[in-house]
Amino acid sequence: MGRIRTLHTSLANKIAAGEVVERPSSVVKELLENSIDAGATEINIEVVESGIAEIRIVDNGSGIEEDDLPLVFHRHATSKLVEDDDLFHIRTLGFRGEALASIASVAKVTLQTSTDGIDGYEVYAEDGVIHEQKPAKARRGTDIKVTSLFYNTPARLKYIKSLYTELGKITDIVNRMAMSHPHIRMTLKNDGKTMLQTNGSGRTNEVMAEIYGMKVARDLVEITGETSDYRIHGFVAKPEHSRSNRHYISLFINGRYIKNFVLNKAVQEGYHTLLTIGRFPIVYINIEMDPILVDVNVHPTKLEVRLSKEEQLYSLIVEKIKAAFKQKVLIPKNDLSAKYQPKKVLKQFEQQKMAFDQQHVEQNPPNSKIEETNVEEPSYKEDATTEVTNNSTPSSEEYTNDAHQSYDKHHNATSNDQVDAYTQAQRDILSGLDAQYDTSDSQPSMSVDNAKQFTPRIPYMEVVGQVHGTYIVAQNDEGMYLIDQHAAQERIKYEYFRDKIGEVSNENQNLLIPLTFTFTKDEQLFIEENIEALQRAGIFLEPFGGHDYIVNSYPVWFPQEAVEETIKDIIHYALEHKTVNIAKFREELAIMMSCKKSIKANHYLKNNEMADLINQLRQMEDPFTCPHGRPIIINFTNYELERLFKRIQ
Length: 649
Known about the structure:
This protein is α+β, with helices and mostly antiparallel strands. The strands form six sheets. Strands 5-4-3-6-2-1-7-8 form an eight-stranded mixed β-sheet, covered by helices on one side. It contains 19 helices and 24 strands. The radius of gyration is 30 Å and the shape is globular. It has three domains: 9-193, Histidine kinase-like ATPase, C-terminal domain (Heat Shock Protein 90, 2-Layer Sandwich), CATH 3.30.565.10; 204-326, Ribosomal Protein S5, domain 2 (2-Layer Sandwich); 459-648, MutL, C-terminal domain, regulatory subdomain (Ribosomal Protein S8, Chain: A, domain 1, 2-Layer Sandwich).
């Protein structure tokens, strides 16, 4: 008698559920996707004990026909696919027909549904089998309740983590669904407490304000872009709101949340030199494409996908994120937890007479005016709001006192005026939130050579002094600034070397004494396979017997004082990353040279040297961070200083 046999349905469903239903958040995800696919405009999610005891999802979607009810809990039964070709044109979130069958095999499920709000039905399923089906009163849509999750698979229940962890995963799923479907009103409650509530206005920025708070929401920058195959739209947060992990990078394809290493890398590349190592941005990007370009049938959870023309999409994301911050002021704000700040109106900042030497006077005439944007904004409580309209209110505000007016006028403002000012300012920010989401195609950046047409991205300021031979103290009408002198010069030299190295020829210089390198067998195999690519990068390795190679020449753009070190760094980078990328090599070289050639801490400067450094920094394309992503300049507004010294309450 043969030993191979077909598994009975209950056991097969439990095995399938092992991949589809890993934890309570998996149930929420699958049911939420079904509600969205059903065309719901309102979805309520309620969980008890973080979903372990009960999960209930109620929607106002299309409901389920009576004739379809017997198949609801059958594995691979779905209304979303008919022909083989449909698999390559998927626009729904669900399509495998495994979700309800898997859930019902490891939990007790009660489903009420109606397609017209008049005739309704109730189905009860347990252990993957329908035990009861009967008429019931139900509003249009579907109400599904899942209880006793993993009651018949104790091993799975044993490895469920803390209730806090499970609730966090559920909240994460709902948050991402809410961002990608802002037109749907969503409410999430745990043990009766509201965790999330959106208004279904169709505006993603409102949902992000609800999730991340107004402090982050007002510092979002909208990005849009398209190629012949892809169209992207999203919001990227300023670098100061970075996090310690990639969890806050939310990528969607046609509304489906996905995980993709290459696209995550594209996002990080877009923030290159704006974030330090180990810091990651808050990003929401939805990618619209023809479904035929993406394979979502990779894993039962449908999170992992495979893309066609991935490089094209990678370049588009990098380009648009970089462009988004080109015209933005990225000086980190100081959060003093102020309950309110005074209302300010936009004006142009008129430069006072400079304390610079004659060279700087010639470069920046005292009477010239510099248009300032986003210099400083009022701070608000973290409480989120969804009452955002389309009024056009400027996103950056400045004090009403002019350059020659005494600041005492502001200091003598009454407490009631401040409260009124805060109330009006908050309304303006909320009503004008969209006005600050400038698209990335606003203005082209100007080179340093075109300084006469270049508008500096940081305001004029005059030097006050230096702290510990490391930080420059400067001021203007708006407040006080601290500048890290090493980071400032590092940015200046980085942009210089980046441009210089990028324009060099392929001319080589011969070495008087060849350099010798020894590699392992694995390294030798990589070098032999990429010998031509290494040569294009300027590394001319020649076999010298055994494991040894020699280098007789090098490109003239290598720094003369560090030729051997540069060659070693490039070879090490290639071996470590298993790739040869000339542009990346030159980028890394510019960073290395700028760091080594910049002034260090505890180096005391004269006032005119500090003024010269600030003046050069103002001409940079990205004057806010060093090439490693560390901040260069920090601002304390006059208001913040007065609060610190209790001059105002």
